[in-house]
Design goal:
The complex is a heterotrimer of chains A (400), B (292) and C (283). By secondary structure, chain A is α/β, with parallel strands linked by helices. Chain A is built from 17 helices and twelve strands. In chain A, strands 4, 5, 6, 7, 8, 9, 10, 11 and 12 form a nine-stranded mixed sheet that branches. Chain A has a two-stranded parallel ribbon with strand order 2-3. In chain A, helix 1 packs antiparallel against helix 2 and helix 8 packs across helix 9. By secondary structure, chain B is mostly helical. Helices cover 74% and strands 0% of the residues of chain B. In chain B, helix 1 packs antiparallel against helix 12, helix 3 packs antiparallel against helix 9 and helix 8 crosses helix 9. Chain C has 283 residues and is mainly α. In chain C, a hairpin with a 3-residue loop joins strand 1 and strand 2. Chain C is globular, with a radius of gyration of 23 Å. Classes of the chains: A alpha/beta (400), B mainly alpha (292), C mainly alpha (283). Chains B and C meet through helix 1, helix 3, helix 4, helix 5 and helix 6 of B and helix 1, helix 3, helix 4, helix 5 and helix 7 of C.
C-alpha cells in the first residue's frame, strides 16, 4: 500500500502543477520515473487459492441474519429472466433489486472484476451468475461467500443430477440458475437423417461443414464422450489428448470454424451442416429454419450450468439469498423457464408448465427425458494452473 | 463542361454511389429486419412483415437507457477529445517545441494498442486511484482513445496550409488567441468537424475498452454483445434505425436551411456594395455561411 | 519565449490527458510484460525479456497476417475512398456535409449488427454468393465467408470512413482554380492531377492510411466472426491471452511488439511520402 501511496501523491503533484513552465516539464520526467518505479513494484496479485476443505469449514458456520431488504444488485446475462419475477419479488419482500444484465461473457466479466476480487474489495454486486468453469475458478480462489443454508429451504427442489458437482460437492457456494446441453445441432436436409453419435464430428462426409465450440470444456469434453470416456472424471492428460485430436482434425480441414455463440448464423443459413450447439439456442433457431434439429447423442452430452453465487465480501447477503430461494419456488422457476427456454434446475417445473405451456413442457430440449438426463455430464474440475495449460493448448488450435 | 469532364463526373458519381451502397448494404439489412416477424428469439431469417417491434421499441427500459447513455457518452467524449486533439494538432504542426518529434509518434500509440490491453490497463489505473467505474470512466476512456484520431485528422488539414496567413494576422497585431479564433480555427473547421464525426462514431460503437471500464453502466454496444447469446431482439434494429433516421433528418433539415439562408444572402448581396468584397473573401479561405 | 509557452498551452492539455490515461497504464503494462508467474500465485517483476523473444517466434504467422490484411484493407480503402472523397469535395455542392455524414452513419448502428448482417448477406447459398459464382468470382464449390477474403473485406469495410474523412479534409484545401491554371498552361488533365491535386492530397492519404492501417493491425473481431483459425490475427492472440489464458505478461509483450512494429512502419511510410516538410501551398 505504500507503493500505492507513493503513486497517488506523485499523481496528485503532477495533476495540480502548472503544466506550462519548462521546469515542470522536465520535472514531469522525474515524476514519471517515480511512477514507473511505483508501478513496477506493483505485481499482479494471485488468486489466493483456498482449499475446498477450508472453504467448507467456513461454510458450515456462515450466518446471514435476516435484514431489511433495501437496494441490492443482481448481475446476470441479458435476456435471462422474466422481468415480472423481479417485480413480484420486490412486492413480496420489499426493497428494490437493481438487475443489471452486464455479464455477456464469463472471461470478460472476470477480467472486469478480477482485481477487486484479488484485493479483497467488494465488487458491488450481490449475486453474479457464471458458468460452471468460471464458478469453479471463483470457488477455488476464494472469491465467493458461502451460503447460510437456513435462508435457502427451497434448495431441496434442486434436481438430483445437479445436487453435487466436483467443485462444490455440497452446493454451499453455487446454486444453479439454468442449464443447457452441448449436443449436435444439425440441418436434417443436409445430413439426410437423424444423427445419433458424436462420431459424425469426425466423419469425412461432413468435412468442412462442421463448426466446433472454441471453449475447450465443451469441445474437448465432447471428444472424450466420443471416445467413450467419462469427461467429468477426466485428467489433464485426457483433456490434452482430446484437444490434440481436435487439432489434427482441424488441420485436415474437418472443421469450418471454432465459434463462441455465433455458430447460430452459420447453422441457420446452412453454411455448416452440423454444429456443436447449445440446446437452448436450438429451441429458438427452429423458428428461423424448420430443418434444424437437436440431438442428445447416444454417448451423452456435456451439461453446462450457469450458477448463482455470492461474491466475496458481499454486501447484501440476506437479500441475495432470499432471491435465490425465491427463484427455486417451482411456480417462479416455471415462469423463468417459460421465458428463457433452457433446462431448469428446479424439480416440478414440468408439471406446472404442462398446464400452462404444454408445448414447452413437451419439448425435449427443455425437459430432456430421464434416460438422457442420466447421460448429461458436468464439466471436470481442474486447478487454475491446469486450466491455463488447457486453455493455452486450445488457443493454439483455434489459431490464437 | 467538356465531354471528358462529363465522363469524369459520371464516373465519379457512379463510383461514389457504389461506395455508399457498399457502406449501407448491411444497414439496409438491419433496417429490413426491424420489420421481421420473428417467431423465435433470433432474427436471421425473414419470417414475415410486422410493425409490432415499431409499436413500442422502448418497452425494454434497459435497452433505451443503454442507448441514451451511449449518446451522452459520445457527446461528452467527442467534445473533450476534439478540444484536446485540435489544440494538440495545431501545436504539433505550427509550433516548434522540445519533444515535438516524440509527441508526434506518441500520439499514434493509442491507435496501435490492442483494445484489450488499452481497456484493461486503464481499468487497473482506475482501481489503483480508487475511482469507481461507471459513466465518468467510460467518458475518460473514450476521450483518451479518440484524441489520436482527432489529432491525425486535424493535422491532415493543417499540413500544407499556408502558415503565412496566420503570420500576417500576427503581424497586423492579433494576439495568440485572436489569431487562433479568427484565422486558424475557421481554416481548419472542416478538419475539426470531420474529426468530431469520427470521434463520435468511435465512441458510440466501442465495445472492448468500454466493457472493462463501464462498471455497472450499460452502453448500447455492451447490451447488444450480451444479447447475442440469447438472440438480439428486433427492438435493437428498430432503435438503430431510429437513430440513423434522426441524424439523417436533422442533417437534411440543415442542408435545406442553408439553401434558404444562401438564397436570402445572395438576394441581399445583389442590392449591396460592388463585388470587391468578393476578392478579399476569396484570398482568405475563411469559411462562409453556405456550403464551404 | 512566447512561442514556446503558446506551444505548451496548445499541446499541454492533450498530452496531459494522454499521459495520465494512456501513458501511465502503458508503463504499467510494460512492467507487466516483464513479469512472470501464474494466475494462482500471482505475478512479480522478473525482467523476463525472454517473453518477448518467445512471443515473436511463436506468433510470427499472426504478426505477418495482421500486417498483410491491414495493408491490403488499407489499400482497398484508399482506392474506394479517393474518388468518393473527390466527388464529395468538388461535385457535391451543398450536399457535402450530408454525404460525409452518410459515410460515417453506418457506425451509428452496432458493429455486431453490421457484422451479423454481412454474415447473412454473404451466406454460402445466399443471393450474393450465388451471383458471384455465376460470374465466376467464386468457385462453384467455394464460399466467401470463413475465408481470408471475407476478413480483409470486413476490415476494409469497418475502416472505410477513416480513409474518406482525412482525404476529404485535405482535398478540400485544393483551390480548383489551381487545376484550371495548370490546364491553361497546357498541362494535360492527368498531369495536372499528378502535379497539383495529388501532392496536395498527400497529407490526407498519409493520415487516412494511418487511421486505417494502425487500428486494423490490432483488429480481432473480423477474423473472429468472418474467418477461421487460419485467419486469426495478432489481435485475436492478445484477446485470448488476456481473457482466456490469463497470461498477462505475454499479452502485454505482444502488444508492445505490435506497437513497435507499427511505429517503425509509420516512420518509414512517412519518409516515403515525404510529408515532413509539406508546408507551402502554391499560393
Amino acid at each position: 500500500m505504500t507503493e500505492r501511496g507513493r503513486l497517488e501523491s506523485a499523481l496528485e503533484r503532477a495533476l495540480t502543477d502548472d503544466a506550462l513552465s519548462r521546469r515542470r516539464v522536465l520535472g514531469r520526467g522525474a515524476t514519471l520515473g517515480l511512477m514507473v518505479a511505483g508501478l513496477a513494484g506493483c505485481g499482479i496479485e494471485g488468486s489466493a487459492s483456498q482449499t475446498l476443505a477450508s472453504l467448507q469449514d467456513e461454510a458450515s458456520s456462515t450466518r446471514h441474519p435476516k435484514a431489511p431488504i433495501g437496494d441490492w444488485t443482481f448481475s446476470n446475462w441479458p435476456l435471462y429472466i422474466d422481468k415480472s419475477v423481479l417485480k413480484t419479488f420486490d412486492k413480496r419482500y420489499g426493497g428494490h433489486v437493481k438487475y443489471i444484465e452486464e455479464i455477456n461473457d464469463n472471461s470478460q466479466f472476470f477480467g472486469k472484476v478480477r482485481q477487486q476480487l484479488a484485493e479483497g474489495v467488494p465488487i458491488g454486486r450481490d449475486i453474479v451468475v457464471l458458468t460452471d468453469y468460471m464458478a469453479a475458478k471463483w470457488v477455488r480462489s476464494g472469491y465467493v461467500t458461502p451460503f447460510d443454508a437456513r435462508n435457502l429451504p427451497n434448495k431441496k427442489h434442486l434436481v438430483p443430477n445437479l445436487r453435487s458437482v466436483p467443485y462444490d460437492p455440497k452446493r454451499q457456494f453455487t446454486l444453479p440458475w439454468q442449464s443447457g446441453a452441448v449436443g449436435l445441432g444439425y440441418d436434417i436436409r443436409q445430413t439426410g437423417g437423424e444423427l445419433k453419435s458424436f462420431d459424425v464430428l469426425f466423419d469425412p462426409k461432413y468435412k468442412g461443414k462442421i463448426s466446433m465450440l472454441a471453449e475447450q470444456y465443451d469441445s474437448a469434453g465432447t471428444v472424450l464422450l466420443q471416445q467413450g470416456k467419462n469427461p467429468t472424471k477426466a485428467s489433464v492428460d485426457d483433456q490434452l489428448q482430446a484437444i490434440e485430436k481436435l487439432d489434427k482434425a482441424n488441420q485436415a480441414g474437418q472443421f469450418r470454424r471454432f465459434t463462441g455463440n455465433d455458430y447460430t448464423t452459420d447453422l441457420t443459413k446452412g453454411n455448416v451442416a452440423i454444429a456443436l450447439a447449445y440446446s437452448g439456442d436450438l429451441v429458438q433457431l427452429q423458428s428461423d429454419n424448420k430443418n434444424l434439429r437437436f440431438s442428445y447423442p447416444d454417448e451423452g452430452a456435456m451439461l453446462f450450468t450457469d450458477n448463482m453465487m455470492l461474491p466475496a465480501k458481499v454486501q447484501h447477503p440476506y437479500a441475495a439469498e432470499t432471491m435465490m430461494n425465491f427463484v427455486y419456488e417451482p411456480k417462479i422457476a416455471a415462469t423463468i423457464c417459460a421465458y428463457v427456454n433452457y433446462i431448469s434446475p428446479v424439480d416440478g417445473v414440468r408439471a406446472i408448465l404442462e398446464k400452462t405451456n404444454p408445448d414447452i413442457a413437451s419439448n425435449e430440449l427443455i425437459f430432456p427425458p430421464d434416460e438422457v438426463r442420466k447421460k448429461l455430464y458436468n464439466y471436470p474440475n481442474f486447478s487454475t494452473a491446469q486450466e491455463q495449460t488447457l486453455n493455452q493448448a486450445m488457443a493454439k488450435v483455434t489459431g490464437a | 463542361m467538356t465531354g471528358a469532364d462529363r465522363v469524369r463526373r459520371w464516373f465519379l458519381g457512379v463510383w461514389s454511389a457504389f461506395a455508399l451502397a457498399f457502406l449501407f448494404l448491411p444497414v439496409f439489412i438491419i433496417i429490413l429486419f426491424s420489420f421481421n416477424d420473428n417467431q423465435g428469439r433470433f432474427n436471421f431469417t425473414w419470417q414475415g412483415f410486422t410493425l409490432a417491434h415499431w409499436k413500442d421499441p422502448f418497452q425494454n427500459p434497459d435497452l433505451a437507457r443503454a442507448l441514451s447513455t451511449s449518446l451522452e457518452v459520445a457527446l461528452i467524449a467527442t467534445g473533450i477529445s476534439v478540444l484536446l486533439g485540435t489544440l494538440l494538432a495545431i501545436a504539433l504542426v505550427r509550433y516548434r517545441f522540445r519533444g515535438r518529434g516524440a509527441a508526434d509518434f506518441f500520439v499514434f500509440l493509442p491507435m496501435a494498442t490492442p483494445e484489450v490491453v488499452l481497456g484493461a490497463s486503464l481499468l487497473a489505473l482506475f482501481l489503483v486511484l480508487n475511482v469507481n467505474t461507471g459513466f465518468k470512466t467510460i467518458v475518460i476512456a473514450h476521450a483518451a482513445f479518440c484524441v489520436s484520431y482527432v489529432v491525425v485528422t486535424v493535422k491532415a488539414r493543417l499540413e500544407g496550409m499556408d502558415p503565412h496567413i496566420e503570420e500576417a494576422a500576427r503581424d497586423l497585431g492579433a494576439g495568440t488567441w485572436a489569431t487562433f479564433f479568427r484565422v486558424t480555427l475557421p481554416m481548419i473547421a472542416p478538419g475539426v468537424v470531420a474529426a468530431a464525426v469520427l470521434a463520435a462514431a468511435l465512441s458510440i460503437d466501442d465495445y472492448v475498452v468500454t466493457s472493462f471500464n463501464a462498471g455497472q453502466t450499460q452502453t448500447f454496444p455492451l447490451f447488444i454483445f450480451g444479447a447475442t447469446r440469447q438472440g438480439v431482439p428486433p427492438e435493437v434494429n428498430v432503435l438503430a434505425t431510429m437513430l440513423l433516421l434522426t441524424v439523417l433528418i436533422l442533417m437534411g433539415v440543415n442542408v435545406l436551411a442553408q439553401k434558404v439562408a444562401a438564397r436570402r444572402a445572395s438576394a441581399r448581396e445583389e442590392d449591396a456594395a460592388p463585388p470587391d468584397v468578393g476578392d478579399v473573401a476569396e484570398a482568405t479561405p475563411v469559411v462562409g455561411a453556405a456550403g464551404r | 519565449m512566447r512561442q514556446r509557452s503558446a506551444a505548451w498551452l496548445f499541446a499541454g492539455p492533450g498530452l496531459l490527458w494522454l499521459l495520465i490515461f494512456f501513458a501511465i497504464p502503458l508503463v504499467n503494462q510494460a512492467s507487466v510484460s516483464l513479469m512472470s508467474g501464474d494466475p494462482e500465485a500471482g505475478y512479480t517483476l522478473t525482467w523476463a525479456f525472454s517473453t518477448y523473444t518467445d512471443a515473436i517466434s511463436a506468433y510470427k504467422p499472426q504478426f505477418l497476417r495482421s500486417f498483410g490484411y491491414a495493408g491490403a484493407a488499407t489499400l482497398i480503402d484508399l482506392i474506394i475512398a479517393f474518388p468518393l472523397a473527390y466527388f464529395i469535395v468538388f461535385k457535391a455542392g451543398r450536399w457535402r456535409a450530408f454525404m460525409l455524414l452518410l459515410v460515417v452513419l453506418p457506425f451509428f448502428t452496432s458493429q455486431v449488427l453490421r457484422t451479423v448482417s454481412w454474415q447473412l448477406i454473404l451466406s454460402d447459398s445466399g443471393f450474393v454468393v450465388d451471383r458471384l459464382k455465376d460470374i465466376g468470382l467464386v468457385a462453384s464449390d467455394g464460399r466467401v465467408l470463413a475465408t481470408r477474403t471475407a476478413v480483409i473485406a470486413g476490415i476494409a469495410y469497418n475502416f472505410l470512413p477513416f480513409m474518406v474523412l482525412p482525404l476529404y479534409v485535405s482535398l478540400d484545401k485544393l483551390d480548383p482554380r489551381l487545376v484550371e491554371a495548370a490546364t491553361d498552361l497546357y498541362c494535360s488533365r492527368v498531369a495536372a492531377f499528378r502535379k497539383v491535386t495529388l501532392p496536395l492530397a498527400i497529407p490526407g492519404i498519409f493520415a487516412g492510411s494511418l487511421l486505417c492501417f494502425i487500428p486494423a493491425c490490432g483488429d480481432f473481431i473480423n477474423a473472429a466472426l468472418l474467418g477461421t483459425s487460419r485467419q486469426y490475427m495478432i489481435g485475436n492472440v492478445v484477446q485470448s491471452k488476456y481473457l482466456n489464458v490469463l497470461d498477462y505478461p505475454s499479452a502485454a509483450a505482444l502488444s508492445f511488439i505490435l506497437m513497435t512494429l507499427i511505429l517503425v512502419g509509420i516512420a518509414i511510410y512517412g519518409r516515403l511520402l515525404g510529408t515532413k516538410n509539406l508546408t507551402e501551398v502554391a499560393a
